[in-house]
Design goal:
Number of helices: 12
CATH topology of the largest domain: TIM Barrel
CATH class of the largest domain: Alpha Beta
Structural class: alpha/beta
Strand order of the largest sheet: 1-2-3-4-5-6-7-8
Number of strands: 8
Distance between the termini: 67 Å
Shape: elongated
CATH superfamily of the largest domain: Phosphoenolpyruvate-binding domains
Strand content: 5-15%
Number of domains: 2
Length: 281
Amino acid sequence: MSVNKPNTLQDFAMLKGKRKLCMTTAYDFHSALLAEESDIDAILVGDSAAMVMLGHNNTVQITIEEMILFSKAVARAAKNTIIISDMPFLSYQVSDELAILNAGKLIKESNVNAVKIEGGSEYAGLIKKLVKAGIPVMGHIGLLPQSASLSKGFKRSGQDSKEAEKIIQDAKSIEESGVFSIVLEMVPNEVSKIIMDNTKVPIIGIGSGPNCDGQILVWHDLLGFDEKKRIFLKRYANLRNNITKALKQYKKEVIENDFPKDNNSFYMNKNEYEKLLKKIK
């Protein structure tokens, strides 16, 4: 099925209620190129790069400089796709002034379209300032990986009525502050439905059921690089097995002198080779 993808953040926002939006993460040139060629609606350069690209145990380790590096690579490849970059841990929590400087640096140096900030009503004031400064913001509520990894862990959010009510209030608060979209992570179906029905901006779910306006999955999860089982995931390929199979075959052929063959090699001009032999003798 061929569906026109949004060209601008305004196009993205206006698709709410018209069709589902599809996002994925990307962290390098080739993954972004493939995402663009596949007509993915938007790419998130996630701070999940801390784990899937840099090998950390959580997202808090990644720096603004590293996020810029990954974002630059993605932007070079996906020139016709909306790109949003995560604001990493401590790049926006210290002060509003530092947050504006870091967000501006991320957009200016990386050539991405927007930034994403984790947090609800406590960041409503900051979001308003960023938007006023001309920096588009995607919100992120529900499970917040940057803080969850340091406190309760990666657990479902909104399971009880009090927590669910807080998430609903957070959605309304950051929407009023000017976000163009909101990522909703690990929230029950009932809560995501209430939020989607009571907001005018697209709600992009991850582990929050089918009631959202769109979905996002981490590149390495949907393509099967990771063997960990998570209830909200669907693997659309098993690249881990395919890659290890290819590498093992490569090693076998090298050891058995079956690679490279003549057709994988090239030779000198015969006259030049004879000249070389005379010189070295």
